[in-house]
């Protein structure tokens, strides 16, 4: 999955979609320390924001926005009031707009699909498909 986007365009688009000023982040790390899923992310929330500030389009290939549960632990503890969950949502939207989906029902065995609550499908399809 290759994204052709300049660093300036990446930052502009993320800030437009999220409504956040990512440059107000001073990299304290409280967001990553607060995140219950940071261990599952290839970039923690702090590194995700740092990658954006540096204009690195590789952040769009990260699993971090997809692992983010939007629990808002990072948001309520951020000393600069950055809504990192909104930044993750912006990155997911940018990925989806390029036609990249992250769920394929054909990869879930039929027996397992019967056991999964319907709300799980609804929530994931809303969040992880275009």
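-> sequence recovered:
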């Amino acid at each position: 999955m290759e994204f052709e986007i300049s660093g300036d365009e990446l930052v502009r688009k993320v800030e437009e979609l999220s409504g956040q000023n990512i440059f107000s982040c001073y990299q304290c790390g409280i967001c990553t320390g607060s995140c219950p899923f940071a261990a599952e992310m290839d970039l923690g929330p702090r590194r995700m924001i740092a990658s954006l500030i540096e204009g690195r389009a590789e952040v769009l290939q990260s699993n971090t926005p997809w692992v983010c549960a939007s629990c808002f632990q990072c948001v309520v503890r951020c000393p600069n009031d950055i809504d990192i969950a909104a930044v993750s949502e912006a990155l997911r939207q940018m990925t989806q707009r390029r036609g990249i989906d992250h769920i394929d029902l054909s990869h879930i065995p039929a027996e397992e699909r019967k056991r999964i609550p319907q709300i799980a499908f609804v929530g994931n399809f809303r969040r992880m498909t275009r």
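DSSP finds eight helices and no strands in the chain.
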